[in-house]
Amino acid sequence: MGRDSKKVTSWRIALVLLVATATAQKPPNTFEQLSTEAKQAYEANRPERAADLYARAVKLKPDWTQGWWAIGMISYERDRYAECRDALTRMVALDSNASPGWALLGLCEFRTKQYDESFQHLKKAHMMVSAREAGGPLLDMANYHLALLLTRQGAFEVAQEVMVQVALKIKNNPEMMFSAGLAALRMPILPDEVQANQREVVQMAGKAFWDLITRPPEEAEADFKALVSKYPDFPNVHYVYGTYLAAHRPEDCAPEFLQELRVTADSVPARVQLALRYIVEGKLDDALKRAREAVALSPDSVGAQLALAETLQNQGNDEGALSAFLEAERLDPVSPKIRLYLVNAYRALGRLEDMRREKAEYDRLRSEQRNWP
Fold first, then answer.
1. pTM of this prediction?
2. What separation, in Å, do the N-terminal and C-terminal C-alpha atoms of the chain show?
3. Which residues, 6+ apart, have CB-to-CB distance to 51 below 8 Å?
4. Domains and CATH numbers, the chain
């Protein structure tokens, strides 16, 4: 073969290799290419590359729900919460029935301190999944943060009910256990706002709460006794022990609530609990006294109004009870429980049309809030 012929052959080989290399390095342009390579990059633990590819893919196909979900997940894992929030906002707009989407959106908003929006979206995710269902780690984490926000709002009883669901699934988590102490002690703050000199009492209260759900009864009892022994003058320590006794040894609970009043003279919850206990014991005059005190101290307390209504009902004062139930309804118009109280109150007064109206409202609200505590 001549020298020129060899040069031509070498040139052709080089050209073929160049074309092949250019073809191999050609960036993906179609949605199919981008989505496939994005998935491969994520599985290969290349989050930056995956995020870029997913972002390019959703530009080509803006209604790709899984793409927005992937961008949100990658952003959350990289602590880019604003980007996560924006991606998940797009996702739930496309699929409003995706409880994981609402859960992750609420978690991102919690991180960006958009607490009102976070609460609404975490609540939505919670209500879409029954407590009997296995929601998985994501929804467990969402419920935990929902409980934090309920505590921050002062909805302590609801916060504890949600935290119970978390504790039943996550048996041992010191951070969550600590946070449960805030709801137990009725402290409307987030965990990172607890002062250094209050951390131990919060931790002890949280452990008692957590052990009550996850450990043998005698361990929880020992926790509560240790808490009362070490912090007898800390607000709501006697109250939380009293609520434990009310559920397990109700005949012993009243002294703890009275002790709470010595520590926290203006305690509305302690008065409400005393009124309810006195009703059971038939001490209706004492119950009425405590219920009226609670309402006077906090007219906007739903619990105080309900305690007053129940006391008046037990005294045979159905008109007075109805007035208190209606005030509770005004304060919490979306509560199915209060509507059911009104059903019975109207029945007692023979106001059947009003009874049927409230029963219809009860059925509607209960259906809308079927998974809400």
1. 0.89
2. 89
3. 71, 74, 75, 78
4. 291-373 (1.25.40.10)
